[in-house]
């Protein structure tokens, strides 16, 4: 497995739409594994292909209940009340904001074996899946913030982004050494 560089806000790929995957190849499975590994080291709970510079419609999630590889994911149903909760993003380190989303969803996707799966999710998993599917449509959590909170978030990012020349976040030796699975950034 290989650790991938994470693209941060400012890289145009984060705003591009992704391309649906036709067939699941070994290359795609390897990419999914590399994304999971990268996500764990970065202490995240979700990662979408554009965040590692790829255009396949693919995202991975693990809220500490096992890895989920979602190919061509689609939210087919949302239900229940919406709820506001804080989100972060591995592509916008140190920036957080409250996002209102449905608390219960059904997602349909193809798994790493090419099987079509329909899965209900609620609470954190529902939030995480919606955040990742947004990534596949070129959408970021800061897009949901009101004008004032968005401006504040972007001002913070203007300072943070200096650490990421070329909009690249390379995982540090320290992060790799720690390699915890308990993260909070999507
Ligand atoms: Zn994100």
Distance between the termini: 21 Å
Question: What is the assembly state of the chains in this entry?
Answer: single chain
State the helix count: 4
Q: What characteristic shape results from the CA principal axes?
A: globular
Reported CATH architecture: Alpha-Beta Complex
| Spans of at least 5 consecutive residues with low confidence | none
Helix/strand/pairing category:
alpha+beta
Largest sheet: 5 strands, antiparallel
Highlighted features:
4 helices, five-stranded antiparallel beta sheet, Peptide Deformylase, 186 residues, 27% helix, two-stranded antiparallel ribbon, binds zinc ion, alpha+beta
Describe this structure in words.
It is a single chain. This protein has 186 residues and is an alpha+beta fold. The chain has one domain (6-181): Peptide Deformylase (Alpha-Beta Complex). It is built from four helices and seven strands. The protein has helices at 26-41, 123-136, 147-160, 173-178, and strands spanning 6-7, 46-48, 58-61, 68-87, 97-110, 116-122, 168-169. The strands form two sheets. A five-stranded antiparallel β-sheet has the order 2-3-4-5-6. A two-stranded antiparallel ribbon has the order 1-7. The longest helix is centred in the N-terminal third of the chain and has 16 residues, at 26-41. The two termini are 21 Å apart. Residues 89-91, 131, 135, 186 line the site of zinc ion (ZN). Residues 89-91, 131, 135, 186 line the site of zinc ion.
Task: Describe the structure in brief.
By secondary structure, the chain is of the alpha+beta class.
